Amino acid sequence: MTVKEYNSTVKQFGDPVYRFIYRSIKDRERAADIVQDTYEKLWNCVTEIDFNAVKSWLFTSAYNRMIDVIRKDSRLVAVEYYDDASLYAEENNSDLNEVLHHALDRLPAVQRSVILLRDYEGYSYQEIGEITGLTEAQVKSYIFRGRTALRAYLVKTSVWQ
């Protein structure tokens, strides 16, 4: 990959990679750091990566870096009091987008990631598998389970009634 192609990848894929990571971890600074680390890693091996495969490589590397950060944080953060009432949306809440994002936040990280890659970013099951390191069957299963959980949550909060 040439320097010109590298600069093109920054312009073309920087925002989508950032959006994906930010939607997964909900921390702007940490998402920006992960994207920056990913592009630094790309720069260090720029001669080894084919320009046609860079999009998949970027999302895969960013996803793996995000998982590393989450694992590191889970070891460092003390367990806080778990508030059971936070699982339920307010009944008077009529903003569907807000309720949907609230529901997405309740999903396990893997389910949230594959749903975001499929429904927000438009990746195929195979591409999601390459990015996350899961098999295509696992991706389909996580998406199905995640959507089922989202549907149950939305029905429970009376959004669809």
Notable traits:
161 residues; Rna Polymerase Sigma Factor, Chain: A; 2 domains; elongated
The CATH superfamily of the largest domain is identified as RNA polymerase sigma factor, region 2, helix turn helix motif
Taken in chain order, the helices and strands follow as HHHHHHH
Which structural class matches the secondary elements?
mainly alpha
Radius of gyration: 18 Å
Low-confidence runs: 77-82, 89-93
Euclidean distance between termini CA atoms? 53 Å
Note the overall shape.
Answer: elongated
Strand content: under 5%
In the CATH scheme, the class of the largest domain would be Mainly Alpha
By CATH, the topology of the largest domain is: Rna Polymerase Sigma Factor, Chain: A
Biggest β-sheet description: none
CATH architecture annotation of the largest domain? Orthogonal Bundle
**DSSP helix fraction:** over 70%
Task: Give the domain tally.
Answer: 2
Mean pLDDT: 80
- Count every helix, treating DSSP H or I runs of 4 or more residues as helices: 7
Task: Explain this structure.
By secondary structure, the protein is mainly alpha-helical. It folds into two domains: 1-80, Rna Polymerase Sigma Factor, Chain: A, CATH 1.10.1740; 84-156, Arc Repressor Mutant, subunit A (Orthogonal Bundle), CATH 1.10.10. The chain contains seven helices and no strands. The protein has helices at 3-25, 28-44, 54-76, 96-106, 109-120, 125-132, 136-156. It is elongated, with a radius of gyration of 18 Å. The chain starts with a helix and ends in a 5-residue tail after the last helix.
